[in-house]
Amino acid sequence: MFNNAQIPEDDEEMDELSGEEIADHFKEIVVDGSERLYHASATAPYPFPVDTPEQKRVKKEHELLKFLLGSNLNGTISQALIPTSSRQRVVVDLGTGPGQWPKEMADAFSHVTFHGLDIVPIAPRVGLPDNVHFEIHDINEPTRFLNGSIDVVHARSISLTVRDYRTIIREAARLLRPGGVFFSGEWRRYPTFDPAIYPNNVTTPYINAPGLTRFFDQWNEILYQRLGIRPDVEREIPQLIVDSRFFTNVTPYAAFMPIGDYRFELPMKQAGRAYRDCMSRYMESSRRLFLDSGWSNASLDTMFLNAAQNMRFVEGLGGVYYTVTAIRV
Hints:
InterPro entries: SAM-dependent_MTases_sf. This is S-adenosyl-L-methionine-dependent methyltransferase. It holds the Pfam family Methyltransf_23. Mean pLDDT is 93; it is low at 4-13. Helix 5 (165-175) links the parallel strand 6 and strand 7. Helix 2 (52-69) packs antiparallel against helix 9. The strands form 2 sheets. Strands 3, 4, 5, 6, 7, 8, 9 and 10 form an 8-stranded mixed sheet that branches. Strands 1-2 form a two-stranded antiparallel sheet. 40% of the residues are buried. It has 329 residues and is α/β, with parallel strands linked by helices. The protein has 11 helices and 10 strands. It has one domain: Rossmann fold (3-Layer(aba) Sandwich). The radius of gyration is 20 Å and the shape is globular.
């Protein structure tokens, strides 16, 4: 059952970083009067901060996804991690962020080595299981691992980090052994409505949730125009995997998550509240790119307020999380 106890507390902080590490990997930017920490890479397009407030959102989202999908993994991944006497099982987690997924998986699969890759050193460095390793890497570039040496490549919520998702698919195909598993999971950057309430899809986002719809319309346009990040890539990933011809058993899945507490079942009501909070934090993290694109803080505040009112008062509003698993031929 999902409950508020699973949500990280607001006083959880990222590991203390040295001044040299901050200079090498981060840059501080004032956004609406507050200093926020961003990655300093000149090539990676990721537009969000990487500081403690943003990590709180990511940690909440991690718990939401476990609730939504039922666990940290599915049966296909479990099969790929069955112990074998012939080789060490190895997993690579792309865009690992604070590293919750590999840390929790490492506790459950002590015979597997987990490598979490991220462009900034925000994952913990103390108190880790012996089978978890974090390293700095831009996932748009080839990794250091040998061809056919990996059992699972896990890529969750990385669509804001890559301009061409085919780069990720090709690298996953290179890394995976025959029979290895590629997993992708991405939120759709657009509002939708609960199929349990509107089974015939009688709603129109522009009419029923104009505030949140406007935010996503503007956000997707800015992401594409300024960073080359395509809208709707989450729905294109299964076909991109098929087109690569490196994989078989390509299995897509879509899960609905309510925004707000309109659902009567307590676990879903609690999850909906947490997701609404995540969405509010998500919008605030987008502020810098909007400002860089010519928006004023006042106009952003108005748009965010209209979106927030939709999320609080429009019954049946939600988001969709798309996953796909594929097996390396």
